[in-house]
Amino acid sequence: MDVYINLDFESNEPIYTQLMHQIIAGIAKKELKPGDALPSVRSLAADIGINLHTVNKAYQQLKQEGFILIHRQKGVVINPDGVPQADDQYMNNLTSTLHPIIAESICRGLSKEQVLQLTGELYENFTKKEGGDK
Amino acid sequence: MDVYINLDFESNEPIYTQLMHQIIAGIAKKELKPGDALPSVRSLAADIGINLHTVNKAYQQLKQEGFILIHRQKGVVINPDGVPQADDQYMNNLTSTLHPIIAESICRGLSKEQVLQLTGELYENFTKKEGGDK
Amino acid sequence: MDVYINLDFESNEPIYTQLMHQIIAGIAKKELKPGDALPSVRSLAADIGINLHTVNKAYQQLKQEGFILIHRQKGVVINPDGVPQADDQYMNNLTSTLHPIIAESICRGLSKEQVLQLTGELYENFTKKEGGDK
Amino acid sequence: MDVYINLDFESNEPIYTQLMHQIIAGIAKKELKPGDALPSVRSLAADIGINLHTVNKAYQQLKQEGFILIHRQKGVVINPDGVPQADDQYMNNLTSTLHPIIAESICRGLSKEQVLQLTGELYENFTKKEGGDK
DNA sequence: GTGGTCTAGACCACG
DNA sequence: GTGGTCTAGACCACA
């Protein structure tokens, strides 16, 4: 069962980033499991109608962050050892990423409970079977 | 009482974005209150040693999002009516921003509780007096 | 004082790798010091007559390994904090890199002394003033 | 007595290169001696579960460098006359191979002594009986 | 067939 | 001006 890739070509978010996010989301939802094969650079690029270099950039970055392995000719697979667990560096990044987001949510009048509820719901959506994607 | 601006010129985050975030954080912490005056584009640019255009871009964007008002002669002030409260569009944006962040946190093995705790702590840091910002 | 870039377009070694090696050699020889500016992607590409993407790839990799920083618009500089020092991972890589090289040198009849002398000379060539490059 | 072949299919190093290195290491350790027979292309490929072409490529390259002889019917043997000793071309190759490796080790803060010690240890590991290879 | 490299030209965001 | 992104097409190494 494949993961459906949904790209927004109008978005400011680079396509290769969107692709990365979708694959990471697939892993989070367990639709992609360690060891699973991913489509080749060329076939995925053809499928979603983008350039193979764009797909390649997404794959390279996912590889560099430990989500996937790129075998020489065997293609691309989800890291069989699982994704590297959170370390200090990741937690720092996560904190600085969330920092401005939460600042704005406070300015916009969201209560702590609202923020936590939204966050919790998003988290659960990944862990539910048949979790509704965006 | 001024907000201290701390820019990281080596970050991937654009400087104008960092500037926006710092001002928004100042508002979230109530260090900047509705009606408070902000430095002029020129003086702020000179103070922190960056390009006029960069400060201008940050201000324009903050104005466009309703955080500040820019009067021709009276200068720049925090929106006296307060920041526009969360609407549907903002909530959608917030959701799509958080979505990939939470997806990765799940992949990296963070529990729901860990995510909620981090989020909660960040939220509280803004509402505490003398909240320790970075 | 600039570092002279000498590329071998006939070599099997990718051009971007050669470029990386030359810059690393420049750092080893102290011709490039922490904080020093490097040419922009475009100007270096024009200077040595290769595509800007090839230069970019070398720069990106050097950045990823901590040798250089890429400022948004200020251009490229040698990491002012110095290059990340050897860690376990680097030592493991170094060992597996040297392993087959030394194996072959043994088969070819080089004595331990010969290998150590060659290694030592190469090391010294970097630390000498006016060290003779290849 | 056979040499144990250990391939890493996730490495960036081509499989045929890994195979060559393992055979060369076997010769360096004297586990493979001049005149010793090597498995045929077919049987070796079957044993380690890789493509015929891959084994063939490794053998052809080893032959071309003088490590082995390939007789049409008699099979593959380690060169009975021993491996060609170091000539100028080999020394030049060795030097340019080591050059960038040592440059990086200097950047990463390794002292000359550390480099020589590592090199020496690796050398000794091949000449010791029961040398602990990876 | 696969991914890796290189080239080339275009547009955009940033400062 | 800078780097970042995307596209496009080519050749090669690998299995």
From TrEMBL, chains A, B, C, D:
Domain HTH gntR-type: 13-81
Taxonomy, superkingdom: Bacteria
Key words of the record: DNA-binding, Transcription, Transcription regulation
InterPro entries found in the cross-reference section: Tscrpt_reg_HTH_GntR, WH-like_DNA-bd_sf, WH_DNA-bd_sf
Keyword Transcription: yes
GO molecular function: DNA binding; DNA-binding transcription factor activity
UniProt keyword annotation of ATP-binding present: no
One Pfam family named in its UniProt record: GntR
Record-given protein name: Transcriptional regulator, GntR family
